[in-house]
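> example.struct
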């Protein structure tokens, strides 16, 4: 039997993000449904969001974000041997988005699959990429979260149309060296920490799209309660598994679902020295794109430095959740 040579750990080499050009403000929405800027800002924290044009597909946005991450990584398309696209809003069921995106980026014959863990998708995909690199089944992985939620929104439903938005974020992941000559797995200090992931299908009726003719439905209060009470232990477990104390975190980048959830989680985790991602303010809730999009923008703005430790946690429909500590490239 021929064994593949794995790596002691995995690390993010670069991030990239893409947002569609069209800005939709709260006032724009107030012309369409019975809502107002003050309610949306105070209950959700969103001031504006980006919505894709009618001709702009999930794959288009994934290619844009993936291309930026690839360029920033210093690698070429020939170096990538696995592409994972986390999305819950693919254009079509088959073919998968990942294979099409890979070809458009000039990546020849990589492993390619889509992953649906809704708003937890990026953290699941990052965990899968990291594990594939450590197992030796991939060397460099392009991980993308991309969503066009606008095509699954009922634009007359004020409980959802004010929240969800479109965009894409991507990361290039590669091998990390062992911490020492013993070959012990690289810790979060130089890579991606162990993923802590889970789900509860008993809450499947809290967020769903029933069928191809339906719109997204969310029982907002139930999801809010769950997110603010059940998830901080998952985040703390990810810190502990990575050997990083919460007060050592330079950044806390949770899924951008609601500013009140973000702030409550940050308090409960005790990440008192961490810069907390608040990308939701101008990006809305972009599901699996929200975490890599927030990270790429924080890096672009110079808010994070190379070597900083960041705690990520994604959560959403399923319900599914996943968290890990990463080192900023
Ligand atoms: O990304 C996947 C994970 N998703 C989440 O984590 C989302 C979690 N949930 C939430 O973020 C919040 O529950 C929402 C933002 C969805 C809703 O906020 P809320 O504070 O839970 O509001 P609510 O649904 O309890 O509604 C409060 C009131 C209601 O009016 P009454 O019955 O008190 O008279 C709603 O009808 O606000 C009303 N309302 C609105 N008013 C103005 C609901 N939507 C709107 C709106 N504008 N857009």
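> example.seq
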């Amino acid at each position: 039997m021929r064994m593949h040579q794995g790596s002691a750990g995995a690390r993010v080499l670069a991030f990239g993000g893409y947002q569609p050009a069209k800005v939709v403000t709260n006032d724009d929405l107030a012309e369409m449904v019975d809502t107002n800027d003050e309610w949306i800002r105070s209950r959700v924290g969103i001031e504006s969001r980006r919505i894709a044009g009618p001709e702009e597909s999930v794959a288009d946005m994934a290619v844009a974000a993936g291309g930026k991450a690839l360029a920033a990584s210093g690698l070429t398309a020939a170096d990538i041997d696995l592409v994972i696209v986390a999305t819950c809003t693919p254009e079509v069921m088959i073919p998968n988005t990942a294979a099409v995106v890979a070809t458009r980026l000039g990546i020849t014959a990589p492993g390619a699959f889509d992953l649906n863990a809704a708003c937890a998708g990026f953290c699941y995909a990052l965990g899968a990429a990291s594990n594939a690199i450590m197992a030796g089944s991939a060397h460099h992985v392009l991980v993308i979260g991309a969503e066009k939620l606008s095509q699954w929104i009922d634009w007359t439903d004020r409980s959802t149309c004010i929240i969800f938005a479109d965009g894409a974020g991507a990361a290039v992941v590669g091998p990390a060296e062992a911490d020492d000559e013993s070959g012990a797995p690289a810790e979060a200090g130089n890579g991606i920490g162990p993923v802590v992931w889970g789900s509860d299908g008993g809450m499947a009726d809290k967020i769903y799209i029933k069928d191809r003719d339906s719109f997204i439905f969310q029982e907002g209060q139930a999801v809010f309660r769950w997110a603010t009470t059940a998830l901080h232990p998952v985040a703390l477990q990810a810190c502990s598994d990575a050997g990083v104390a919460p007060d050592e975190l330079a950044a806390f980048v949770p899924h951008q679902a609601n500013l009140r959830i973000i702030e409550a989680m940050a308090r409960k985790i005790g990440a008192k020295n961490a810069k907390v991602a608040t990308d939701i303010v101008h990006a809305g809730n972009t599901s699996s794109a929200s975490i890599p999009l927030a990270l790429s923008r924080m890096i672009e703005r110079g808010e994070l430095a190379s070597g900083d430790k960041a705690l990520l946690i994604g959560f959403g429909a399923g319900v599914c959740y996943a968290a890990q500590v990463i080192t900023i490239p």
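> remarks
The domain at 9-176 is CATH 3.40.47.10 (Peroxisomal Thiolase; Chain A, domain 1).
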